[in-house]
Write a structure and sequence with these properties.
This protein is mainly alpha-helical. The chain is built from twelve helices and no strands. The longest helix has 42 residues, at 109-150.
Length: 312
């Protein structure tokens, strides 16, 4: 029961944000055109602040198991390479290809990973998950921009691809945050607090807009993409990374943090990025909503299994 409560507490706020946005739109308080404009604002203004804040707040002097970092990064890159080979053979539309790839590899690690690790492993889990988030999330975001640009449509030169990636608001925010971190630049408290609060607004706003643009009638047309992708993401990938982490001799908390990278729902940012970068925003939004709902069950089952075999 405790494991179930942990899973519900991690997921329920996301469902509330989405439901609120859906309710506001269906009540006629706003129209979809407004929601689309707000989504563009979030992508252009709020997500860069979130990326900046994530890197700006990294503590100097943190230490991590190099093998753990290597497995985390290499597993993401290898998975992406496999998906880039497989998905274009299985999905016809360019607008859907990048969205499906992003949905499979890119998890809401930053918002689910830390509370889950904290609830199960206490301070040790919180610290490790926080440090891994600082490493993994930039990898998620940079590669997501590249993948979405690849499938924007038509042929694109490597030079144009690099230019488009560098012009992406998330990349710009991350780059500025990384520069501040490297140079040890600290903002005045009067500036740091608003930056942190704007960053905190990003995910609730993005989920609110997602709910406000969601059309349940369209989900059935995309089930042929959603069902196999989510089964692979929420069941197969967590099992594979758990086996790899166990074989590598990682501790229980290290193994669980790697597991979270793949077992948590599709990243909220994937919807905004797809919507603003030529991808199928509707499909991306459905991935976020349905994976978030499904993860209540899958995370509970995984945590229950780990507890029963002594991994937690």
């Amino acid at each position: 029961m405790e494991s179930f409560i942990i899973a519900v507490n991690a997921v329920l706020p996301f469902l509330i944000y989405i439901s609120f946005g859906y309710g506001v739109r269906t009540a006629g308080l706003v129209d979809e055109a407004f929601m689309n404009k707000l989504n563009k604002l979030i992508f252009q203004a709020f997500f860069p602040i979130l990326m900046f804040n994530n890197l700006y707040k990294i503590e100097h002097g943190i230490s991590l198991n190099p093998a753990l970092v290597a497995v985390a990064i290499l597993s993401v890159l290898i998975l992406q390479a496999g998906l880039l080979l497989a998905i274009p053979r299985l999905v016809r539309e360019n607008s859907k290809r990048g969205v499906v790839i992003q949905a499979i590899y890119r998890s809401n690690f930053v918002l689910f990973g830390i509370p889950l690790a904290t609830n199960l492993f206490g301070g040790e889990g919180e610290l490790l998950a926080t440090m891994m988030v600082a490493i993994v999330i930039p990898v998620y975001n940079v590669t997501a921009v590249v993948i979405l640009e690849m499938f924007r449509g038509g042929r694109i030169s490597p030079a144009a691809l690099v230019k488009n990636v560098c012009a992406n608001p998330l990349i710009r925010g991350a780059l500025v945050g990384f520069i501040f971190f490297l140079l040890g630049i600290r903002l005045p408290a009067s500036v740091e607090e608003p930056v942190s609060e704007f960053a905190g607004l990003t995910t609730p706003l993005a989920l609110f807009v997602l709910g406000g643009t969601l059309h349940f009638s369209a989900i059935r047309h995309n089930l042929k993409y959603i069902v196999p992708s989510m089964a692979f993401k929420l069941a197969v990938l967590p099992a594979v990374i758990t086996v790899i982490a166990t074989a590598a001799g990682f501790s229980n908390v290290e193994r669980f943090v790697l597991f979270e990278m793949y077992a948590t729902p599709v990243a909220t940012a994937s919807y905004s990025m797809a919507q603003n970068m030529g991808g199928d925003g509707e499909l991306a939004g459905q991935f976020v909503v349905l994976s978030t709902a499904a993860s209540v069950i899958t995370i509970f089952l995984w945590v229950y299994f780990f507890t029963s075999i002594g991994f937690v």
